[in-house]
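Thread: Newbie trying to understand structure tokens

Hi all, I'm a second-year student working on a class project, and my supervisor (Dr. K.) asked me to get a predicted structure for one chain before our next meeting. I've only ever worked with sequences, so writing a 3D structure as a token string is new to me. If someone could post the tokens and maybe explain what I'm looking at, I'd be very grateful. Here's the chain:
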Amino acid sequence: MKKIYYKKNIDLSEPESRQLLTFGDSLIEKGFLRQFSGDETKVLIYLLTHLKEDNEIEIELPLAAGALGLKIKNLRKIISNLAVTGIINRETAEGESFFNSYLNLKAVIEKKEESEQFTNVSTAGAGSEVRKQLINSNSASENEIAAALISFLPPNNRNIHRREEIKSWLNDFENKMLKELVRRVDKWLKRQGGSDHLQGAYAYLKAIIDNWYQEEITTYEKLQKQDKLHRETKELARAYGIRSFSSNTAQLKTFQSWLSGEQALSKELALAAIREAVRRKRDGQPSLKYVEDNFINPIKELGISSLADFRRWLQKEMDQKSSEPDQRDQNTSKNKNKKEDKNKADKSKTKNSDENKDNYKWKDFFIDFDKYKE
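---
Reply by user tm_fold:
Sure, no problem. This is what the structure looks like when written as tokens:
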């Protein structure tokens, strides 16, 4: 016997309303709204209530933004997100005030079904198995990546907030990056002794994501460059004598400045500069300012780009220093000459003094010969 359900309609329309939108409770309970963020839900409802014939949409962006309490910039971004899912067929153009598009109601339903599939996959099976399958796969869907990411959380913490968070990552980062993220966190988890999920694993994952946002790393190519810079920075730190460090220390920022930018040095040149500075400063560790002033800056200014050029420059510097007279010898010679001149002056002075004394004696020597006259 067919069941008959009592249906209650709640009408929030006004007399001048031209379109009505009905959402069933069962559709919402099955997670229809869970697939959209709060602002996406607002925009979707706005679009559904502003349909023309054949599901055509024509809205004025400033009016829509004002009605929804959004900035036009954010409204454009949300429309772009909906376009990526296939719910609408185009994004907004820069400077466009009127937005025309077509709404794909079928895509809305399919997205709901995909969301249900995501829920089933992410809660079924051991997290380690879900991650292993993703890491070993040649290609992966967003659904599989999302399931692997949320598997780092205990089942009772896999709430709507976390799902929305993961969905935003899927929009902001390439799938290849997120797959690499799963591999790294899974590796860290195994080193910690956790087989499925462990307290702190999701926090470690989120710290990596936050760093990507901070450094604006949104593509796999940028991630590879960042990883290379991090590895080379660690090599410079070890050559300088740093064994335990944090990536945010001033010293490591200095090393990174040598390896990046318009006048970036190769890792080999930077290492050679550090080793030469350490060799010369045998009485202790050279300061980074000493390394920069005597090696890094001259290398950049002279355009030295290879180890061979660097060695030739060092040899030239050594040859120039060896051809210059030793300052200590110069000082000794000057002191000797001064001493000789002083001795000569003293002797001349003594001689003049003796002559003056003799002159004085003969000057005062007087005999009165008249006294002795007969």
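A couple of things are worth pointing out once you decode it. Residues 112-125, 360-367 have pLDDT under 50 and may be disordered. The chain is about 65% helix and 5% strand. Feel free to ask follow-ups in this thread.
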